[in-house]
Amino acid sequence: MGSASTIGEPEGGRRRSPRTALVVAVGLSGVAIWLAASFARKPPPLAAQPSGISVTDDGIALTVDAPQWQVLKLGNPEVATDYWSDLVPARVRIDETHSYRVGAPIAGRVGSVLVDLGQRVKSGDPLLSVASPGIAELRAHKDRAAVDLEAAKAERARIQAMVTARALPTKELLTADQRFRKAEVAYHLEVAKLDSLKVSTRVDNEFLIAAPSDGVVVEKNVLPAQEVSPESGTSLIVIADLSTVWVVADLFEADAVDVREGAAARVISPSLPGGTIEGVVEMVSSVVDPVRHTIPVRLRVPNLDGRLRPNMYAQVRFTVAAHEGAVKVPMSAMVTDGAHQYVYVHDGHGHFTRREVTTGSARDGSVLVLAGLSGNEQIVEDGAILLDNASALAH
């Protein structure tokens, strides 16, 4: 009989020992770790600064042979001078210091309106007629005062003759003279009441309102049969002398800061000979329009030929006074971090310092620098962004 096989032992092979299995497992783990390390992401190398440039604690330095000199343009800021502003929309208005608002001096009803809007009138020309019982009453008071004055005058003359004839004592003449003076005052008072209305009468209960001055009817708010009274507070007719007019421009708050009263201005309109006319800033308003957030700036402009008409649109340029100590630099000289503006100042020995500046308006490729820079300093006019990028890489 052959020998029996051991239970659980595989046929035809040896049984592996636990030690051998452990060695294999450790080997496989090592391979996995090596592969993981091989494929792990390596951090990118730090960006190297270009040759010839170095970042210092207080700026950037370039060596004499640095290639960056070829793209940098250096220069000095220009001293800022007065300049003409950009065109600003404006409108023509009447000169209110040479306008006259005509109202009803006494209550009544309009009979007829004798002028049209835009019509030229002379001082004393009739504007409208008004029927009023009040004017008849005033005239009656005046007539009654005139009669009383004549009676007092005659009475004084009669007593004067009797005193001269010694028929009456002198004190009677004094009393008569007092009555005459009183009647005279009453009469002149009634005359003054009528004269203060500045009207001419046509019939007992109707009067005419006349133009107070030469000018043009620029506003008309009256119709026939309309009830009028001084208490309404409404101007029935406005007459203006258009030999001078106002031109009013609405400037944004930042722009109005640089415009001064008395400064020269230029009005541009197609209706003007040559298209322009010179004027003077008469007023810069101290009040901001609450809706548009603009500031009215008013010019006084000669208008002898009448080409500028009320409510006409125009455009205006202002002479803007330069700020004391302000300089002008190219826009390419400016760099920003989003909140502040900077320029790079060169010390003359290859060292550049980034300096914060306060800027004003920009125009024609230049920026006004109001503070932080003087005219005798040298700055980077072009290429400042390259220095700024180099500084950013170092930080």
Summarize the structure.
With 395 residues, the chain is an alpha+beta fold.
Question: Could you list some keywords that capture this structure?
Answer:
395 residues, alpha+beta, conserved putative lor/sdh protein from methanococcus maripaludis s2 fold, Elongation Factor Tu (Ef-tu), domain 3, Helix Hairpins, ten-stranded antiparallel sheet, six-stranded antiparallel beta barrel, elongated
Structure report:
The protein is of the alpha+beta class and 395 residues long. Among the domains are: 53-81 and 324-394, conserved putative lor/sdh protein from methanococcus maripaludis s2 fold (Beta Barrel); 88-97 and 240-320, Elongation Factor Tu (Ef-tu), domain 3 (Beta Barrel); 133-204, Helix Hairpins (Orthogonal Bundle), CATH 1.10.287. The chain contains five helices and 26 strands. It has helices spanning 18-39, 133-164, 170-196, 253-256, 384-394, and strands at 53-56, 59-62, 73-75, 78-79, 83-84, 88-94, 99-102, 108-113, 120-121, 126-131, 199-203, 206-210, 215-220, 227-228, 237-240, 244-252, 264-268, 276-284, 294-302, 313-320, 327-330, 335-336, 341-346, 351-363, 366-371, 378-382. Strands 1, 2, 3, 4, 21, 22, 23, 24, 25 and 26 form a ten-stranded antiparallel β-sheet that branches. A hairpin with a 7-residue loop joins strand 17 (264-268) and strand 18 (276-284). It is elongated, with a radius of gyration of 48 Å. The two termini are 91 Å apart. The model is unreliable at 1-15 (pLDDT under 50).
